[in-house]
Design a protein that fits this description.
mainly alpha; 0% strand
Length: 154
């Protein structure tokens, strides 16, 4: 299930574009997640009261959290699958404190792909999309394995 060097390069090339505006990308990813899967909002105490897209766009907390999410994911992607040290605390907090089901990680992965397609269509062709989907699936599978170790059935 690992990625080839070429696939990792495609992932990191598009991620470099994300990093030019982490707050903007992060905000769009979370808005896409919440619009597509409103049930995910229940996991975010700070965001439960945000009912419209305009309210979400106006929330500095949402923008900050989007930046946090994409910064952490970028750190993991840059490890090219050798992400045990980065993944462990993330799995721990998402399993025990936040109780985020693996299904929600699928939802946010889909939101990431949608935002990348929307913002970087010229640089995010079929090969890059396939590589990113594969990298996000690897991440989710590894998180799911950690969840299992922690006894979380998310």
């Amino acid at each position: 299930m690992g990625l080839s060097d070429g696939e990792w390069q495609l992932v990191l090339n598009i991620w470099a574009k994300v990093e030019t505006d982490l707050p903007g990308h992060g905000q769009e990813v979370l808005i896409s997640l919440f619009k597509g899967h409103p049930e995910t909002l229940e996991k975010f105490e700070k965001f439960k009261n945000l009912k419209t897209e305009d309210e979400m766009k106006g929330s500095e907390d949402l923008k900050k959290h989007g930046t946090t999410v994409l910064t952490a994911l970028g750190g993991i992607l840059k490890k090219k699958g050798q992400h045990e040290a980065e993944l462990k605390p993330l799995a721990q907090s998402h399993a025990t404190k936040h109780k985020i089901p693996v299904k929600y990680l699928e939802f946010i992965s889909d939101a990431i792909i949608q935002v990348l397609q929307s913002k970087h269509s010229g640089d995010f062709g079929a090969d890059a999309q396939a590589a990113m989907k594969k990298a996000l699936e690897l991440f989710r599978n590894d998180i799911a394995a950690k969840y299992k170790e922690l006894g979380f059935q998310g």
